[in-house]
């Protein structure tokens, strides 16, 4: 055995612990070697870049969709006319149903007044109590 003392454990150089940006603070492996301050700056930059890219993509897709819609409108004018007729028929059908329901509940559709209702006649010669008991 040697008399030389050996270091046990993990040996990490001081420069490996410092922030990757060289600000003088210590970095963290969870933040990819940046300190908390530099990590926030890098994360904010990356986030803003992603937002800008997403915005540009959304604008491009919107333009493409509008162009496709415009070209389909010019080539499918007959289909639009057919759809208009369909919508008109549906509207007429709804109106007819609503009118029917309104007629059903309107006062003019009721036949006669409350005085004209027929009331059952009771025969005084019949003993109804006995009849109920027999049933």
Automatic annotation (TrEMBL):
Lineage, top-rank taxon, reads: Eukaryota
Query: What range(s) does the A20-type domain occupy?
Result: 13-47
SMART domains, A to Z: ZnF_A20 (SM00259)
A GO biological process held by the record? vesicle-mediated transport
Q: Which GO terms describe its molecular function?
A: DNA binding; guanyl-nucleotide exchange factor activity; zinc ion binding
Q: Which UniProt keywords apply?
A: Metal-binding, Zinc, Zinc-finger
> Region labeled Disordered — which residues?
66-95
What ranges does the record list as Basic and acidic residues composition bias?
85-95
Supply the Pfam families for this chain.
zf-A20
Q: What is this protein's name?
A: RAB guanine nucleotide exchange factor 1
Q: Which organism is it from?
A: Equus caballus (Horse)
Name the encoding gene, please: RABGEF1
